[in-house]
Input
Amino acid sequence: MKKLMLCVIALAALRGSALQAQNAQKIAGTWQGALKSPNGQLRVVIKVSLENDKLKAVFYSIDQQSPAIPASTMTSDGSTVKMTIAALNGNFEGKLSADANSIAGTWSQGGPPMPLDLARATAETAWAIPEPPPPPTRMAANANPAFEVATIKPSDPARPGKLYTVRGADVITINTTLSDLMTMAYDLHPKQITGGPAWLESEKYDVTGRPDVSGQPNVAQMKTMIQKLLADRFQLKFHREKKELSVYALTVGKTGLKFAKSERDPDSLPGLFFRGPGTNLNVTNATMAQFASLMQSAVLDRPVVDQTSLTEKYDFILKWTPDQGQLLGLGGAPPPPANLSDAPPDLFTAIQQQLGLKLESTRAPADVVVIERVEKPSDN
Output
């Protein structure tokens, strides 16, 4: 009797697996549709393939001429189709028609869902996908760049947030204080900086500079350029000391990781962006060290020590409800959500539930920077 039951269970499992495979085969192909808004429409193309019995998808926003963006997950359960794209903080959910030629669905990207109905493309109806722009020429890995020319201007006091980015070869920071520039350039928390003037954390600057070496700098080279800018234009001089500080240790939890290795070009720059009211952090092509650095500079009230031993680059989205002691590097936490029943968890719970990591309070020796001299930036 037990053998018969096991055979029945195994047969049911095989039938279920076969049914899932059939559903997945129905989804494979090229799909296209338009997101409509008051400002017009954006055409999207989604190419779905079946590889080793798993669905994979690639997303194109053809009116924006965006490069191919791989989906993080693509699933089909009966007529329900779901797709997530961590790089865009985007989610699609729809229903496959009986003839498997259309999907009625919605797209959400950190805000209210928008209608997105997809049709299966044929050779006659398929929209042309523009050729992606050529990848930027990378700066030589052994280059030691400085700014050939740089402008430093007071920031617009009405502009919220802050930004570090690269456009072409130009390195740009927006709404950054001297403290911000130091924490970015030297991987510090503000509490690791002592002896500075009162304006260290209050006066904000926009910096735009072009390197004296051709090509787009990587993150380490960006930091080198900012370090040289601080010494040259701010006359920054300091020394380091060791001090035991209260820190947060970032480790891998017992459940293991719940996010995937990035499929982007490993040599491309990482993306770490806050979306919405500041509770959604979208991370693409970033290391755990870079994630920890952002958390200590923009989110938390003490340094973050990366103890994960993870060296790959990853994509993930972290959603949490910040308390009033967080996001001080971005101007403070936003008001709590009006509908508390739908609010995401606190940061420590979210990191454990959504990422499979742990963030724990402890004490550890840490570098402390003692400022000996600094001046307001010299003229451009």
Residues 4-19 have pLDDT under 50 and may be disordered. The helical segments are 2-27, 178-186, 219-233, 288-299, 347-355.
